[in-house]
Amino acid sequence: MPARIARPPPPTCLEGQASQMISVARGQPRGIINEVRCLDVRVLSKGGWLVPGVLSTWSWSGTPKVSMLISATTDHVKVDSIPGDKSRAVQQVIDLDRTACHLGGHRPWFICPSFWCRRRTAKLYLGDSFRCRRCLRLAYPSTRENATYRALRRVQKVRARLGGSRSLAEPFPPKPRWMRWETYFRLQEKAELAAAVYYRGLANYFV
């Protein structure tokens, strides 16, 4: 079992950090995760970016375009702004943790750099610095949708999982060879219930 990371004791005078903690606990979401640049430790690990001694460049498209230099050691990742890039000035060291997988190997995690958080997370988001979703008070896109469109997304997710079209106008996908009938019928029922909610919502909209 990996050692549990202990929270550091609160300092005697950190008013800025204290006000940040209160705002996280009481504040409303400030945005959604799709609107914020993200750093995913799983993508970095799979692409070989976490190999100690490797210096790489990570870029996000959009306006303005943001690029970072990323270097790793066994226990942390260092993120630096590209020299001359005025769009975002960031210089940050992000701690890493690893947990054992059931079939062998280890899974890497970021440790949120926020002093009052320090939780494991797969993704960090770029605000004034990299922090986790909770610290930046970011919401998932589904929280901005009404019940009708959440139901539509559930149907589409099931259809995509079965390898079929996401369009409700297309026939429901058949059972994949590798899937058990019990699982298939459960997913089919889930999709039918969600579709009923979606169509009912559409009917109410046009009344």
**Separation, N- and C-terminal Cα atoms:** 58 Å
Poorly predicted runs of 5 or more residues: 1-26
Tell me the Rg in angstroms. Answer: 22 Å
Q: Count of helices?
A: 4
Supply the number of structural domains: 2
As a percent range, the share of helical residues equals 25-40%
Shape: globular
| Beta-strand proportion | 15-25%
> How much is the average pLDDT?
80
Number of strands: 11
Strand order of the largest sheet: 3-4-5-6-7-8
Q: How is the main sheet built?
A: 6 strands, antiparallel
Overall SS class: alpha+beta
For the structure shown, list the relevant keywords.
three-stranded antiparallel β-sheet, 24% strand, 4 helices, globular, alpha+beta, 207 residues, 2 domains, single chain, six-stranded antiparallel β-sheet
Task: Describe the protein in words.
The protein is an alpha+beta fold. The chain has two domains: 29-140, no CATH class; 145-206, no CATH class. The chain is built from four helices and eleven strands. The protein has helices at 15-26, 41-46, 147-161, 181-206; strands at residues 31-32, 38-40, 55-60, 66-72, 76-81, 91-100, 106-111, 120-121, 123-126, 130-131, 138-139. The chain has a six-stranded antiparallel sheet. α3 packs antiparallel against α4. The termini are far apart.
